[in-house]
TrEMBL record:
Keywords recorded for this protein, A-Z: Acyltransferase, Transferase
Protein species of origin: Chryseobacterium cucumeris
GO molecular function term, any single one: acyltransferase activity
PANTHER family named among the record's database cross-references: LIPOPOLYSACCHARIDE BIOSYNTHESIS O-ACETYL TRANSFERASE WBBJ-RELATED (PTHR23416:SF78), SIALIC ACID SYNTHASE-RELATED (PTHR23416)
Coiled coil: none
Keyword Nucleotide-binding: no
The name this protein goes by in its record: Acyltransferase
Pfam families: Hexapep (PF00132)
Cytoplasm keyword on record: no
SUPFAM superfamilies: Trimeric LpxA-like enzymes
Amino acid sequence: MLDEILAKIQRKSQISRLKKHPNVSFKGIKLGISNHFVLHDNLKNVTLGNSMSFRNYVHILVQQNAVLEIGDHFFMNNFCSINCLDSISIGDNTLFGENVKLYDHNHAYQTHPEFKLFSSEFTTAPIKIGSNCWLGSNVTVLKGVTIGDNCIIGAGCTIYKDIPSNTTVINHQDLIFKEQ
């Protein structure tokens, strides 16, 4: 009983966070439990379409000067995250399986004169996902990728280059069995 009350309070808090931000617009939205929206005060724009559903433990980060646009009838399953430092757009009637991750950025690094990683500097490029797409469980989409309309991305795929419309992508792994 207490868990249900706390979940309801948390959902109201997240809806309130969305409503209060001047650059966020949304229509119908359904939230599960323990969802978390991190919205920078100076983000450019967040537009969430009608009839959206976020399951449980979803994390959405939109940083300064970033744009996030999600179309109508979008579904995001448990443990998904969107990490937007530049621009991410998702079309209508698109659904994500569990644990889908979107990253429109990478950490900056140099290789010469010596190898060095920069923990607070990033390179960015937009992500565009079309309408009528299904990204299966554990799919990761990296910066600069465009996925066309009517695509199915199979479970476990890492998408690092463009996918044309009307394409199915599978994670082909050879299982090797050795007899002892």
